[in-house]
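Homework help thread (please don't just give me the answer)

Our assignment gives two proteins as sequence + structure token strings and asks us to describe the second one. The first is just a warm-up. Here they are:
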Amino acid sequence: MSRQPASEFQERLPVTVEPRPTTSRRHLAFLALGVVAGALGLGIVSGIRGRSVADTTLRQATAAAAILPVNVVAPQPGAPTQEIRLPGRTQAFTDTPIFARTSGYVKRWYFDIGAHVKQGQLLAEIESPEVDQQLQQARADLATAQANLRQAQITANRWSALLQSDAVSRQETDQALSALSAMKATAESNAANVRRLEQLQGFEKIYAPFDGVITARNVDIGVLVDAGANTPGRELFHMAAIQTLRVFVAVPEVYSRGTRPGTPATLTLDEFPGRSFGGMLARTANAIDLTSRTLLIEVDVDNPRGELLPGAYVFVHLKLPGQVASVTIPASTLLFRAEGLQVAVVRNDEAQLVPVTIGRDYGATVEVVSGLQAGDQVIVSPSDSLTSGTRVRIANAPAGPAR
């Protein structure tokens, strides 16, 4: 086998052409430009979306901040009320100051504070020499007038008898009769003056007007008492009748149906623990006070041994003819408005102002007898500017009503 020359073999091999470097670089440049453009577009889209989310979040936060956050409580149902316990203050059945009706100096006094006296007992004496002297002069004037009257009566009788025989003229007789009438008027005037001064002299002795106890003594021996018409009187003593005491109580309007004259009542006092005193509802005002929405009643309590003192703070227990359903809420939930007492409740995410009627006041809590239900959500410490329809959100989880 013959070999071909090497030159011929080389001529038959395929010839390889290398790519141009310029075309490869152009492709790389277009690829890099596309990557940059895509990244830029992705950044723009991401920025727009983030801005939209931020705006939405800001609007939601602003709307949430505009809703007032509130704390609420649930009214606690109370036991049906069969008896009410109301505060009151005892007063003496009769309480009066004692003044002087004549001027002078206190000569002596006989009873001090705390003394029990009977009606008509002498309390003090006033020395009034001016009145005594005026009375003596008035009695002397009366005696003179009575003497002149007797003389005028004799003269008139004599002239009347002489007129029957025409011994004197009618003119002279008429003058004698006129003088008699004048003397009668003068005598009556002097007698009235004597009676007036005798009464003033009688006022020099101060007597007890009723059975009671002396609660104040404002005089001492030698004190000047001026009973002039143009000067304020001086209170000598103060007396109180404590055999029976009055207790005035303001009863809420919702309980007024249970207050009828003759209804028994019971009184309790802190100074007498474990004891009670019986009383009777004597009378009512028969009208509801427009400011406090209460009915004023008077309870009379017998006090034969004087254990109860006037001015004492007491609690009056009144039985009710029926049961009154009620709930209890904190006192901090109350709103005092011109329309009356109200509370704010949450209904449909809005605050609603509801008028309520208060029963008993326990201090930190109060009893509500009308206007609320046990399932209501009552706003605690509502703002004074809160109005019905205000959007609110509950910030706490209210405790459910007691069962």
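The one we have to describe:
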Amino acid sequence: MKASPKKLLPLTLIGIAVTSLLSVQPAQAYTVTLQQMGANVVATGTGAINLTGLTFQGSVPAAGPGVLANSGIVAIGPGPVVVVTEDTYNGFTGPTSFGSGGLHLASTGSGDFVAIEGRVGGLLFVPQGYVSGAALSSSMTFDGASIHSLGLRPGTYEWTWGTTGLANQNFTLIIGRAGVPDGGSTVSLLGFALLGLTALRRKLSC
């Protein structure tokens, strides 16, 4: 028996709700992910940075993306060598290293120049005039390299600041794997939507 348009309406609405759950993503703090992709190591950086809780240290020139694992430094953005003026901040805490490797400059890079020096007394670098909370996007590639050859230790590293509990008061580096934990909310909502969809299908088939 063919379902009437009236009976199909709830099915359509649930379908729209499921699609919305899959397409709407919450804002994320700035995260750099370094992954092995074939013969190269590729890094992407996306998200926003909330500067509340940090102390402005001035504007300085910075040149070129790269990593210095034994000092906890990752810089991502245009390159290999492009001198840009950056605003610098300190006042964060976190790991002082993420491997034993020395300095490795990226072969290519693009986007916003963003960097962090995890070593004691280090600095956070953002584009000059950066407005707190604005979206950032960056990338870099190390040709003919591996996670091992760059001296990187796989894992997740996070630098945090502030005591206000505001969003995006952190900088995360992920080495060797991609993804940010969902936290369960989207999965739970999607599960409820699918259960409703299954029940409705059974009812319509009767």
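TA reply:
I won't write it for you, but here's a hint about the kind of observation we're looking for: The helical segments are 5-23, 185-205.
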